[in-house]
Design brief:
Helices cover 86% and strands 0% of the residues. The protein is built from two helices and no strands.
């Protein structure tokens, strides 16, 4: 969970920095910028999904070990 949170935070910060650079200096074409932002959003969502599924799996596994569920 900790690594996933760090990865999501890093993706978010990098995307915001790229957006700020784009607003002030426009180093990329608009189409390229949109593709980059869509890619960052996709990576962010994939990371969140993996973290949540893994956490749920580990919680269920711990409940089974503690004999709370069958």
């Amino acid at each position: 969970m900790k690594i996933g949170s760090i990865i999501c935070l890093a993706l978010f910060v990098i995307a915001v920095l790229i957006a700020l650079v784009q607003v002030w200096f426009q180093p990329m074409d608009v189409a390229v910028f949109i593709r980059v932002m869509i890619s960052f959003v996709a990576l962010f969502l994939i990371t969140i999904a993996i973290v949540l599924v893994r956490r749920e799996y580990l919680e269920d596994d711990q409940l089974k070990k503690d004999h709370y569920i069958g």
